[in-house]
Amino acid sequence: MSTAVVGSSESLAASLAAIAAGDRTVLAQAISRAENSPALAGLIDSQLAAAGQRALRIGLTGPPGAGKSTLLGAVVPEFVRRNHTVGVLLIDPSSARTGGAILADRVRMKHRPHPRLYVRSIGSRLGHGGLAEVTATAIRLLEHWGADVVLIETVGAGQSDIDVCGLADVTMVSAPPGLGDEMQVMKAGLMEVADIFVVTKSDRPGAQALAAGLADAGPGGRTGTDRPVLLTSATSGDGIAGLVDLLERQEPTPVGGTPTETAPLSSADQLGQPKSAPVAPPRPVPAVRPSAQALTPFDLTGRVAIVTGATSGLGRRFAEVLHAAGASVVLTGRRADRLNELTATLERSIAVAGDITRAGDRESVIAATLKRLGRIDVLINNAGVSGDPVPAEHLPAERWTTTIDVNLSSVFSMAQLVATPMLAQAHGSIVNITSVFGLVANAPVMDAAYAASKAGLVNLTRELAVEWAKRGVRVNAIAPGWFPSEMTADMVDDDSSQRYIRRSCPMERMGREDELDGVLLFLASDASSYCTGQTIAVDGGWTAR
Amino acid sequence: MSTDFVPRVLLTKSFIDSHDRAIKTIALALRDAGFEVILIDYEMPSDVAHVAVDEDVDVIGVSFMSGGQVSVTEAIVGSLAQANRGDIPVVVGGTIRPFDVEGLNSAGVRAIFRGGESFERVIETFRALALSTRAERNAAA
Amino acid sequence: MLTGTNDAPRIKRWLSDTAAAVVDSAAERWLDARHKRYGEATFESTNRSGVVVQPAYGPQDLAAKPVEELVMPGQFPYDRNLYPVHYQYQPWMDLQIIGYGVASQLRERMDLLKEEGGARGYFGGEAYNIIFDMPTSMGIDPDFPGVQGAIGDTGVSISKMSDFETLFDGKDLTATHVSMVCNAGSPGILALYLAAARNRGFDLTKLGGNITNYIWDFFGHCGGINFSPRGSYRLCADIAVYCAGVAPRFNTLTVSEHNICEAGANHVQAVAFSIATIIALNEECRSLGIDLDTVVPRYGFHVRYGEDFFEDIAKTRALRRMYAKVNRDRFACVKVGSLQARIHAQTAGSLLTVQQPLNNLMRNAYGAMSAVLSGVNGMTINAYDEALGIPTEEAVTLSLRTSQILAEETGVTKVTDPLGGSFYLERLTDEVERAAMAVIDEIDERGGLIECIESGWMTEQVARSAYRWRQEVESGARPMVGVNTHVVDEEPKVRVFQPDPEAARLALEDLARHRTERDNAATSAALEKLRRAGHAIQEGREIGSVTAALVDAAQIGATLGEMQTVLHEVFGRNK
What we know:
- The complex is a heterotrimer.
- Chain A is an alpha/beta fold.
- Chain A folds into two domains: 197 residues, Rossmann fold, CATH 3.40.50; 238 residues, NAD(P)-binding Rossmann-like Domain (Rossmann fold, 3-Layer(aba) Sandwich).
- Chain A is 40% helix and 14% strand.
- Chain A is built from 19 helices and 15 strands.
- In chain A, the strands form two sheets. A seven-stranded parallel beta sheet of chain A has the order 4-2-5-1-6-7-8, sandwiched between helices. A seven-stranded parallel beta sheet of chain A has the order 11-10-9-12-13-14-15, with helices on both faces.
- The radius of gyration of chain A is 26 Å and the shape is elongated.
- Chain B is of the alpha/beta class.
- Chain B has one domain: Rossmann fold, CATH 3.40.50.280.
- In chain B, strands 2-1-3-4-5 form a five-stranded parallel beta sheet, sandwiched between helices.
- Helix content of chain B is 49%, strand content 21%.
- In chain B, 64% of the residues are buried.
- In chain B, helix 1 links the parallel strand 1 and strand 2.
- By secondary structure, chain C is an alpha/beta fold.
- Chain C folds into two domains: 66 residues, no CATH class; 377 residues, Methylmalonyl-CoA mutase (TIM Barrel, Alpha-Beta Barrel), CATH 3.20.20.240.
- Chain C contains 21 helices and twelve strands.
- In chain C, strands 3-12-11-10-9 form a five-stranded parallel beta sheet. Chain C has a five-stranded parallel beta sheet with strand order 4-5-6-7-8.
- In chain C, helix 3 runs parallel beside helix 5 and helix 6 packs across helix 21.
- The N terminus of chain C is likely disordered.
- Chains in contact: A-B, A-C, B-C.
- At the B-C interface, helix 1, strand 2 and helix 3 of B face helix 4 and helix 17 of C.
- Strand 3 of chain A pairs parallel with strand 2 of chain B, so a sheet runs across the interface.
């Protein structure tokens, strides 16, 4: 065991002393040992936490081909020139199959050696205690060595980036001009982690347009005004000094603290997880024998779920059920007061008020979730509307449009938005709440728009499910029959309605609120890991005959 | 030795060499054999040693095609010794002429691979050298 | 591919109804017979390029061919040959690679080659294919720290104009074709040569030869000390424009399909990347307002032979066809010279083996044969001992004999494009063209060649192919005699050429003397003028002025390394 050899506290103390004295050989070896031994990494962390030395930690990410290493190759010498002592960590993915990696960022960085510069390549080494953990230890070692600036370059896709950016005081996202680059940035799920956008290769056509686009594209209520967009060219050096000026003005986080939040979203926010302790990514659940243990697939501990329409009866119930199963829950709805009431009763929850038919509001929900909770595992697309019975020939066009907008278009847009982080982490469950009237006609209740929207949702569920099936994101739907809710409040006490229900429903009754819990939890959790594209009717047999 | 050990190797060509097909191919083979391969460009000998120190590699592989085999290898070994990392083994590969061998051996290279060498022998040589480097270093610590 | 009975309508486009019916029936009977005799086995094979090859071909395989491509040699799109008749009128130019030591040492070897009947240029002239040592090839002077071990090692060391004067002392340079294989050092090496010719009073407009000018080199042929891709293209344009005016017979660019193959690319990739190189340079020239018809006729290709006999020929034809079509249709070139891809063939060095090295003689002969059947313009046959180091004199002579046997004994030179009309070869040519066009489309979609170089996409594509090739050799799926099949257990016993260790000392002494004897003030002024010219062309002005300034500086006494330093400062380094 390597830990037995190098983990003794005397040898560690000696190593740390040598590192503090500037010995880069010992520094390099200490990082290797931390990589190979999570136990030793923990020991180093605990020793150095007390020392408390802190550098400005700068994250750099961006889609593949964004010129990250080339940008570093220009930024790093500028920091060195300004008498900083600089540590650089270049993180590249390891092969999931063999654990091997080609670490070639140094080639593109093209820097010259310098006594005040230490550059280290790190393989993401899945299964070695988490990339963020190793990186955090490496950062502490670099600080101990004397670095006052630490730059961390990550691969530009997936959860590891978000984790690693969580370690940074300031995160730069780089993007080159060219067709659809802004989309690439968004697709890679990077819009939310950016504190500074850097448009690289500014001498290329389209650079200005991209910069303008990034400044405008401020989802989550963040705009160019609080996120600078800089144009740089590593070739000509244009913009590099300005970028370093800006970075030098950033403050390292005080000792012992976590990076401060900068973008207030809702007064109702209650933070579930500190940013620097990201939720561990879910691992595939191995097959288990049928026993009491088989219940664990329903466990949502560490997962993050968004519930739309959370101010309605069913939505609220859904949020409570997911929370009870261990999830952190993001509640959305139009009425902030009612959201606040709800979050007050649920400890791991945040509220983001908004109207999901509005694109900006939808993006705010996603932004807030990623910012606060770091990930999205479950989306319950619950928000929906229906109206009074109107014969189809008289249904106003406006009612048609509104209904389709809320019940179908918004649902699709929300699914699209969560898909980015879900696909990136290759894990997620989307549950659409449709209706039995998406499966059969709802006459005599007569709402053609409702029926069409809910039926559309049934096949949208199948389509999304199949498109994303191989990539870890499942999409299913629940088709409730009649349940007590605000939409059905009038029917509960209405005799003719009750007669209608007794006549049409084999169980001759409405559903109870708790009778959706099981299906919801089943579809939201890994219990349904082989189930996608399905619509499960929970209707007392309504659609069975 | 911890089972978590991932061998780290540095592959490079001399700053005055050409044709990097072999080194790229070996890099991929080593990656697929579970190595972390730090691949750098055509470099000056002193830079190779500098990177080897910072990256704490277990083996250095230098590939040659177009001359300077002995003088460049000697310079790399010398720079490593100067950086107190003379313990890192150096192997060479590529176009190694019969008259290069003596100079390379006296420079202290630990293995010579010529064209047509099997991946298996290359990988196993790198692995054995990496393991012994790491074991010695850990024992020293 | 044989498709049976449904091809009749297509065949009818160029055969009579009766003939079409006969062809179709023959194809069908062949399929039946194959099924009866061999069952479900298709006997298809897949080339490394991904092109699928059937066990037999017939007239129906020409059915999809555009009628306008059924042409004679010397007709557009020039896939069959550039000329109406070729070797019957003018044999290929032998360009045996030579280069080692310092100029005076190499000159001795050139004279030996000439005695053996080599160095044969067109129309009784002489031709030399000079390879430089790595420092020279990359534009580094012998006294640069750390390069001494490589001086004269794998090529000749040249650092100043007088070296070329020594090399070609007494020769009529207007009757000597000088081919120079070099990389980032190309602009400076060309300048030293042109300066030497001018200094000796030759008329530069009559100077023939070519320079690789492969200065951006994205396949690692030359590594760290190189130009940025964008700077390289600007420099290529400058050289092309200068030579078009001053040395119009000098070929200013040789796109090295050979190097792309040697880096591991398959034939489809290699053809596509070669044509993409032309597209990128044409776009650069067009953006600078250069009339393409003044520069394009002096571009050429360096193509590799020896991997797959028929696909080698097919790729050559596809390359010529695509070059003609791209330059005419995409760039509106009208001069015939702008549509004709001239090809300098070289056999594959990376396919030569250290094991049983004499086998390499056979490999080279087959590669050279496929080059001849492709109708190439110039020929380099490697020495069989190349895998072991710099060739011995005996090996170089054997390469020359290989070419001479092909030209004078085998009879393959009697007909131009002797394989034209081969059902198989025509079909294979079409398939290579189609697949290569798809790669070019992808490069266009990715924003063009330079973007693909800068993003690392190109090198990744090539490295993957190289790795796959190596894995196939390791597994035995790709047989290599002496390596993974028909292996013998013995140490190779061949004589290996050992470079003269004196070369470094001679080069250093000579350079030191030169630095003291020349006019240093004038040299500095010339280099300053070069820098100003560089900035001007970077701004898109005075294209051609950099090469002019280089030639002036070279004639005054600037060294290769001094000129290269200025160029690197202005045009950016890859490192």
